[in-house]
Write a structure and sequence with these properties.
mainly alpha, single chain, 163 residues
Length: 163
Amino acid sequence: MIGLWLERFCMVLRVLIGVLMMALAIPVAAQVIARYTGIIPVYLWTEELATFIFVWVVMIGSMIAVWDGTHFHVEVLREARSPFLKLLQNGFVLVLLILFGLLFAWYGIEYTKFGSIQNSVMMGANMAVTHVSVPLAGLMWAVFSGYRLSECIREFRNSRAAS
């Protein structure tokens, strides 16, 4: 049940990142047209908007990658054949991801508070708009990794029951 909810949430994230990528094309195109053709005046707020959108694209992309198991996955050792060693291998990485995500979430709260007292220069937007992406991403890394860890434990228990 939780896995289905998380998968649906990740599908929403995938749609959101697609929308943000399309939205990112607008200020970037305006910047390119303004700088190289002179058809429209150079608006510096487009650069800030592109930066804000890009930060969210990166953070949402990292959340999706953690759910898919592709972001922090580097194989140094061959995949274990034993169910217990496989649990140790995957569990170690997932526990580190949970801790890393919780650190991002914890310190990201202070980072967001710091951003909430600042406004961007050109747009006048509150910087918490982008800063809040850090604790949110950390929280989702921890949640997604925690679910994957529970799956690994369940798989290990099922392999022990079968043998």
